[in-house]
Amino acid sequence: MDLTGMLEISGRTDKGRVRDHNEDSIGEEVELGTVVLADGMGGYHGGEVASAIAVNTILNRLHEELPEIEPGTIDKKTGYSKESLLARTAIDEANQTIAKASQTQPQYRGMGTTVVLGLFYDNKLTFAHVGDSRMYRIRDQKLEQLTVDHTLLQELVDRGFYTPQEAQQSLNKNLVTRALGIDQQVEIDVHETAAQTGDIYLLCSDGLNDMVIDEDILATVNTFADNLQDVADNLVTLANEKGGKDNVSVVLARPLKPFPAPPLRWHKRLIRKLFK
To answer: Is the pLDDT of residue 238 over 50?
Structure first.
């Protein structure tokens, strides 16, 4: 399914004002209806290798398998949609690829990455993440964080040790409890939500939300909403003006019209039945 003309996507990645190289990676595939962002860490250039592996592995897997999905199909064993299972499979493959490279190539030992993925399919958004890279939704000029950070600080907030306001001032924001590439298996959060025409979805590395408060993110999106590339550029600029202490990356996506998935072609259905 080609979402050209149905989905607008823009993004930008920047090394910031302090780091000497960029360990973030972003991917945008409007034809696939896919956006992905990864924030790498560890080793000599290991972070940028890990994040690039994550983005490329996920996009390659989706290219191979998304066209073969029958719209509306639910997996009987898990109760999940096929696109949700595909998102999970793609991220799991990325995790194993990074872990193998880390274990077999000494220069990349200890590398890992966060990831956040958005897959627009059949008027829904499937979103998945590992780590503290975030996805926000802006609807009716209001900002909502869709993902929950996989960090020690977030766990302490959930247990009542900190308020969200206190957590914003903490010096220990970036101690992630999950990342790709650390172990052969990783827990992946996957969710689905209805996507509406005019929604704006923002994926970002912590280089944005550590520097810029949610209210300023929302104000920037609303101010430049007519052009998503202007939104991306101004969010990165704002993060750098606030100090730019980390790499900063953003990807934005906006449905322009409904995007129902066409049914699987009859010959593919026949082949599937014959070899089931």
So the answer is: yes
